[in-house]
Specification:
elongated; 65 residues; 3 strands; Factor Xa Inhibitor; alpha+beta
């Protein structure tokens, strides 16, 4: 059976933690930053865990992670 293909966009956006959770970066940090407070921008730097509903789909797209 041939190898499965990983979803290229997902490889760049998600990673799997040691315990199997999907780690993602937060949105709204790319442009129009002048009106956002420093505290808000600082909190957007941190990565977070994807929701369980989305994690199942992401793990299918990343079969070898």
């Amino acid at each position: 059976m041939p190898k499965m293909k990983s979803h290229s966009a997902s490889k760049k956006r998600f990673r799997i933690s040691g315990t199997g959770k999907v780690i993602r970066n937060k949105a709204y940090k790319s442009h129009i930053l002048t009106k956002k407070t420093t505290k808000r921008k600082r909190n957007l730097r941190k990565s977070t865990v994807a929701s369980d509903a989305n994690s199942a789909v992401i793990k299918v797209m990343l079969p070898y992670k």
